[in-house]
Amino acid sequence: MKKKIAILGSTSSIGKSLLEVIKKDKKNFKIELLTANTNYKDLINQAQKFKVNNIIITDPNCFKKTKIICKNKKINIFQNFESLKKILPKKKIDYVMSSISGIEGLLPTHKIIRHTKLIAIANKESIICGWNLLKKELKKYNTKFIPVDSEHFSIWFALHNSFSSNEIKNIYITASGGPFKNKPLNSFKNISVKDALKHPNWKMGKKITIDSATMVNKIFELIEAKNIFNINYKKLSILVHPSSYIHAIVKYQNGLSKIILHDTDMKIPIFNSLNYPFIKEYEDKKIDINKLNNLELSNINLKRFPSLKILKYLPQKLSLFETVLVSANDELVNLFLKKQIKFTDISKKLINIVRSKKFKKYKGLQPKKIDDIIKLNSYVRSVIN
Fold first, then answer.
1. Residue 137 counted as domain residue
2. Cα-based angle 264, 266, 267 (whole degrees, multiple of 5)
């Protein structure tokens, strides 16, 4: 029987990678739904190529254009996620990939949990800002969850079915160091947008590539790890690892450690999440002995990556403060991409924002509904502008 699946954000890099994985094994999968915001041309092409009957395109203008283009095609076109009740059958589908970028991905992720047996989440913001709300839905609808970020998938793979937070001594996630790991510090003020978008290992969207250059992405990944695995921040650390071959190290209380490594290919965690609970063969390269002999792990240099000072301001308990951090960073990255602020201003301004009295009160407030997060996101962005 074919696995029935849906992809939220199918025109994103994760969505496209998932479709490449499915393409090699089409006979075992039936795609029920694809979604996008503005990239309607790619969405229509995907729907036709994979014979998908239902698509959601949320941008109003793109929705109108899509309706015109697909007038004589057998594709049902919807504009919002309220339509999930119409699109998906009463019986749960087998798998959902949540790969819409930004806080915009939280509401669709929350809404679709009830419709699937398993959800793989690549959307960082959902886990960082709304994990308590997602966790409640996962439990309510008995839906399994797999994180798809390479670091968190690696930790999950090391821990699942045999995990208790009391058994863990430390968890290390790795960071490539981005494009500026060896750049002279006195030249940082001259970093251009073009320079910051040259990631040495990964092909990603602009926003996440800038986050990698500032190392803000690792702040987000520690928050994700803390939420997903219920681990105290004191047990979580970051190691610089230029080749990105190791993705996570789990050190147990009994003296043993697990190191999870794989090539810099997001299709590996995607492939494994798609085929869960079965372990199938993935056509990859042999273990790279040269990389194993040159792992180059080192501690973080705060002078090079000052944004990581933010870690000491994070509350252990999930709160709306994380939404402040995510929203402020999003807006600052946008300003940098528009060449309105310098690269070094991203970290400086972000540190000032999380230290300000105006936002400290949110450390004691937990989101009670999705709207709490969406409203705060809008407010923080307006303050920065």
1. yes
2. 115
